[in-house]
Amino acid sequence: MKIAAIDIGSNSIHMIVVEAETGRDLRILDREKDMARLGDSAFADGRLSASVQARALSTIGRFLHLARRRGVDAVIAAATSAVRESANGRQFLALVRRETGQHVALLGEHEEARLIYLAVRDAVDLRGPPSLIVDVGGGSAETIVADSTAMRFAASLPLGVLRLNALFDGTRPFGSKRQDRLRRHVRRLLEDTARAARAARVQRVVGTAGTVNAMARLHLASNGAEPDADLPSVVRLSSDEVSELAEMLLSLPLKKRERLPGMDPARADTLALGTLVVDEVLKAVGAAEIRTCRAAVREGLVLDYLATHPARPSSRSTHDVRERSVRDAAARYGDTTEHGEHVSSLALSIFDGTKRLHGLGDVEREMLHFGALLHDVGQHIEYRRHHRHSYYLVRNAELQGFDPDEVECLAVIARYHRKSAPKDDHDEWRSLAERLKPSTRLLIGMLRVADGLDRGHAQEVTSVEVSVRKQAVVVTVKGKGTLELDVHGAEGKSDVLAQALNRPIEFKLAR
């Protein structure tokens, strides 16, 4: 099923075309964006100007034409703050219906927050303590306190970048007095959100939509990334990095901002304002960082449509975002065998049995599980060098809910599941963050042993028991049939684990 969703925002008009399949991630087929900036007239004059309406109508017509060419089954469209607050907003939507035949829903504040929550929950693992979701748009900033089961608090604040631009003129550099006045204004409006976040003991802040992702692109470009490179699904910005970015943008004249690597010139007059809002959010809740998320209202529209049309049921799991994305990638590359599942089970038994030696935690255990599920995807291209192909495919699988370091870690685990061990002169190993190398080497070692124990992909080794002794780690192998070949396969691949644990690995067959 193909669905197009059009989000008529105050700053931009976005469209995504997705392919939706039961139980799988939404597969993005196309993205379109036009900075129509409906809010420029809406927040200055209280009305949508004739020129703004004409530009937006042209954009919507073009998007509908592209959606039809894609052969979509349904088009969903919605408008938010600028249209909602304009005196002639409803007349504009009637014009769109008359000229294009497309109905556009006018979202209320709570409905907009609900759709953002649906989108973020589908893309980010919100299990555990509540999170604060922040969407800084053109007209408003949505703040949502939520966990994986429900929203606990939602507010729509008049802190959109175009609205702030109309009040504070973001085209000029900010001196200390103007900046203090702006920050006091933002802090006052954030008071209820800060109270709700502190009461819920929020431990994570997730930022979504254009402003936050534009900040991430600017940050990555300033650290050497290609300005036009695709944005990772998750970027982490520390509170210090956000503060430094806000101060830098606020201090620069417009012309210098426009020339910054990674800067979208259409956002040069407003991004400083949006970054300051994010900075104040992090300060208000005492958060150490913000994690970006690309999903927003448009993805929420699609998910809501799937959930409310029983003729096309959706059984999507909303709680295991990362696992669903990994399994979807494995299936996409044709790895639907039981081998990955079985190797994961064996590897996790080795992880648990050696925990008092390695001291790794739940995060590393989960990465081992995901790496095992993905290790053979390179066979989609060819068998002979499939470990190298697995590295490339995992890096480019657009895994949801993982930051770039985690994606790199999974790719490296898959790369070294066979053949040579990691070496300092290998490009793939050098690309991994230094702080992750010790734990990743251990995970690679465990995966290699587990993969060797299912050498014939027949699951004849059913389980293992691991005991840590003074002189060695003993792996007792249980199973059916003749297991010598599997044990021999594991022995030949045990060198990395033995070196990482600083003990030889001994194998024996259970009676």
Structure explained in plain terms:
The protein is built from 23 helices and 14 strands. Residues 311-319 have low confidence and may be disordered. The protein is 49% helix and 16% strand. β1 and β2 (13-19) form a beta hairpin. The strands form three sheets. The chain has a six-stranded mixed sheet, with helices on both faces. A five-stranded mixed sheet has the order 3-2-1-4-5, sandwiched between helices. A three-stranded mixed sheet has the order 12-13-14. With 511 residues, the protein is of the alpha/beta class.
Give Rg in angstroms: 26 Å
How many distinct helices?
A: 23
Q: Write down how many β-strands occur, each being a DSSP E stretch of 2 or more residues.
A: 14
Structural class: alpha/beta
Biggest sheet overview: 6 strands, mixed
- The spatial strand order of the largest sheet comes to 8-7-6-9-11-10
Please state the overall shape, judged from the principal axes of the Cα atoms.
Answer: elongated
Strand content: 15-25%
Helix % is 40-55%
- Low-confidence stretches at least 5 residues in length (pLDDT < 50)? 311-319
Question: Mean of the pLDDT scores?
Answer: 91
Give the termini separation: 53 Å
